[in-house]
């Protein structure tokens, strides 16, 4: 039996009304179950291990050298938010079923997730801006001040993300039934259409426009550059461009499904099993994007890659010493 919500939009797999094709529901549940197993078995371990390694390498480097470069500082911040998004993905382990919790608890989880969701994109925008600003006379002085006050800049970014999250939470529309039980996703199905539209605008549309503007400015700088300074900057921060690309690709499909969901609510239409399947896959794509960001940071960012090689060499030496010791011990016992 479906739990009541104000939008009159329900998950087909949880309602099983007479007009729903049962075979299509079973097929959709089998697909999302297999996709979820692949995500939990591959992307989650790789993402968590990569994120922990990034934190360890950058923090160890800062302790040893008593200095942290701007790129390392922002990558460390992005790694933390990506790790939290991966942790929030554990709310999806019940698929093809859903968490049954109160609207109050669901709104709290959604608000915390949106905080990390908005913080990641805002940090990447800031990183993109720091990459192109030194070659722009009007922005260079501003970015110098920003880089000299990185903690303050990070605090402003986080506070702005919290405000966006609170704005989205205020549009859920569940304040009149906080203790009622609902099927919960990180973007609740029973949220008002305004919630979906605001999250699409603030969480994808506007950031994409800014990223496109920064990218065009970067291309212009490459064409106008008389020396190799711009190319060297891009080469040193290529992981930032890759992060932006992954963010766009993984969140594009998800936000298309958000708009589709809002249109179903506004037109008072029913969700099909295929649309439910696509929305669940789109949600896993967002989580996978965070894992991919962490993996590529570890493998492509110079200090992190160097730290991995040093760790591998240390383990190799440790194994060789262990084998040598075992060989000597066996030889001595044979005598």
UniProtKB/TrEMBL annotation:
Gene Ontology CC: one annotated term: membrane
Key words of the record: Membrane, Transmembrane, Transmembrane helix
Predominant location: membrane
InterPro entries: GPCR_Rhodpsn, GPCR_Rhodpsn_7TM
Gene3D superfamilies, alphabetized: Rhodopsin 7-helix transmembrane proteins (1.20.1070.10)
Record's subcellular location: Membrane
Molecular function as annotated in GO: G protein-coupled receptor activity
Domain G-protein coupled receptors family 1 profile: 50-297
The keyword S-adenosyl-L-methionine appears for this protein: no
Transmembrane regions listed in the UniProt entry: 36-59, 71-90, 123-144, 151-172, 197-219, 239-257, 277-300
Keyword Transmembrane: yes
Name of the protein described by the UniProt record: G-protein coupled receptors family 1 profile domain-containing protein
Organism in which the protein naturally occurs: Xenopus laevis (African clawed frog)
């Amino acid at each position: 039996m479906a739990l009541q919500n104000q939008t009159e939009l329900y998950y087909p797999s949880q309602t099983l009304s007479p007009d729903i094709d049962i075979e299509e529901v079973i097929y959709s549940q089998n697909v999302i179950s297999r996709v979820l197993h692949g995500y939990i078995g591959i992307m989650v371990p790789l993402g968590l291990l990569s994120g922990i390694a990034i934190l360890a390498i950058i923090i160890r480097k800062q302790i040893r050298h008593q200095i942290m470069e701007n790129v390392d500082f922002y990558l460390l911040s992005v790694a933390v938010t990506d790790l939290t998004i991966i942790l929030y993905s554990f709310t999806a382990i019940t698929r093809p079923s859903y968490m049954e919790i109160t609207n109050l608890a669901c709104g709290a989880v959604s608000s915390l997730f949106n905080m990390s969701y908005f913080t990641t994109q805002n940090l990447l925008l800031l990183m993109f801006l720091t990459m192109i600003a030194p070659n722009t006379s009007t922005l260079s002085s501003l970015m110098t001040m920003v880089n000299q006050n990185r903690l303050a800049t990070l605090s402003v970014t986080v506070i702005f993300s919290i405000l966006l999250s609170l704005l989205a939470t205020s549009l859920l529309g569940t304040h009149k039934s906080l203790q009622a039980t609902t099927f919960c996703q990180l973007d609740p199905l029973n949220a008002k259409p305004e919630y979906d539209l605001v999250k699409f605008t603030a969480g994808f549309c506007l950031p994409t426009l800014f990223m496109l503007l920064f990218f065009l400015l970067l291309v212009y700088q490459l064409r106008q550059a008389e020396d190799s300074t711009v190319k060297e900057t891009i080469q040193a921060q290529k992981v930032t461009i890759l992060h932006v690309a992954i963010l766009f690709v993984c969140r594009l499909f998800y936000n298309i499904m958000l708009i589709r969901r809002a249109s179903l609510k506004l037109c008072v239409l029913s969700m099909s099993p295929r649309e439910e399947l696509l929305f669940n896959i789109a949600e896993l794509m967002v989580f996978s994007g965070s894992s991919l960001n962490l993996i590529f940071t570890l493998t492509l960012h110079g200090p992190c890659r160097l730290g991995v090689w040093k760790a591998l060499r240390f383990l190799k030496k440790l194994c060789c010493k262990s084998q040598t010791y075992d060989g000597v011990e066996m030889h001595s016992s044979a005598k």
